[in-house]
């Protein structure tokens, strides 16, 4: 205790930290309800006395309080989960209004008191001795500490045995991480299933549990149940001889790889001692750093910026409190070990050396398996790949939403717009799977445009072109406010008069022009204070705008028809004609055909623009509805 204290206090002084003496306690044999002595760890006698005189719980609140105290001392109680189960059953069956104290619960209550009074002392952990984890799975509990959940009780015996092993190792990871230990079980199948030999034989559930043990270095051994009598963490009996004060070394994160052995603490320490770079670094830390790095050796220059984060612990060097500085001889091996689990640059949570990220990135970039399984690079802004656009054909008012998926987000977006604006007379969409799914058909009935004919929904396609230009501009400017950029763009678009209507979408939707930033210092137009008069004025403006919009639409329609028919000869097909289809789904190569078919015309709409076709070669196939422009 005194030796550890003499190392801690100077370290705090060097770091410029101060301690409040009124909050500090030294040479205390009791801590957090436990008594620490040469014999080991025992419950505090004052707490034990409080448990002995504790009255039986009379409601759920007092029962929860007692269970919390009991759980705190669970490590001293053999078969704790089974002993305390009747109390937990009372808590599960009770409510705030009904509380039934059963005979079994009272027996469990008194049994716990007897066991805590006669509880053994737990020997202090000695890292210099071999470590054994001895597993004994009970029918209803995990190592006497935790009960199996109802679903876990349905597992097979081998699965419950494997779960007990994983639970025990993770519970005692503080003692096991970074050093080799022996996992001893009375279930012989686990000697294969929890090692690299059984990686291809274990079921998916045991394989997932085995993956959780990859960061530990262990050997699995089998001992029959009649010989595995000490399979409990409480079996650490007090040592007869006095424990000499030993310095517990810092634990190293041992990263597992099936084909290679994990790096042990002695190996890491030895490599740190003989590493020339770390030897210079240790000497520099001990004698102090200069004010500038001009006179430092070249290989110590990267450490100058983090000099206050480095500390020496024996032969090891730590950055902050939990990252080991790795010697040059082990860097490639550590990255190789960690990369076997394909965890990318998470290695820096455990280790550090100069240019660590660059080193790891180069390893990942050269790994063929990582490149095959890596996530697809998302090129759309703020990780949203899709833009959902809803446009009013009359006012040209657009609604835009961005999403990473287009399955249920389309329905949610339309429900939001329609609940605010009301239902349209009809709704037109393309033939995307999100609009033809069963979920969408149950949401609403709508019209679908011709396949691979964007002109059929030209208003939306034209706006998408402008929206795309806006997003490209946003990308080029590297704006960090991309969502706000799009919202500003939408407001600007809605405030600009549209060529086909002569009015801005905002005016046709609200009956007035928007108040722009340039209008802040200009007085607003006067409006009637009477709601009825304002309503009449608004209706007059909207009626006049409606007539003007119809005229503009008709003029634009005639102009488009003139230019379209100028060089086009319209020759509609009749039922029974054989036609060819321009199919953009075929791979267009130099020698590949541009047309597929032939197809037979089954029916024609009244305008002669949409044709229902059937494949001549495969008449049993589904019919297609194709626009005139894609036929010949």
Automatic annotation (TrEMBL):
Molecular-function GO terms, alphabetical: endonuclease activity; hydrolase activity; nucleic acid binding; RNA-directed DNA polymerase activity
The reply to whether Hydrolase figures as a keyword in the UniProt entry is yes
In this protein, which residues make up the domain named Integrase catalytic? 323-513
Please name the Gene3D superfamilies in this protein's record: 1.10.340.70, 3.30.70.270, Ribonuclease H-like superfamily/Ribonuclease H
**Which protein, by its recorded name, is this?**
Gypsy retrotransposon integrase-like protein 1
- Keyword Transferase among record annotations: yes
Q: What is the native source organism of this protein?
A: Poecilia formosa (Amazon molly)
Keywords from the named record: Endonuclease, Hydrolase, Nuclease, Nucleotidyltransferase, RNA-directed DNA polymerase, Transferase
A single Pfam family it belongs to is Integrase_H2C2
Could you tell me the superkingdom of the organism this chain comes from? Eukaryota
Question: PANTHER family of this UniProt entry?
Answer: INTEGRASE CATALYTIC DOMAIN-CONTAINING PROTEIN (PTHR37984:SF15), PROTEIN CBG26694 (PTHR37984)
Single biological process term from Gene Ontology: DNA integration
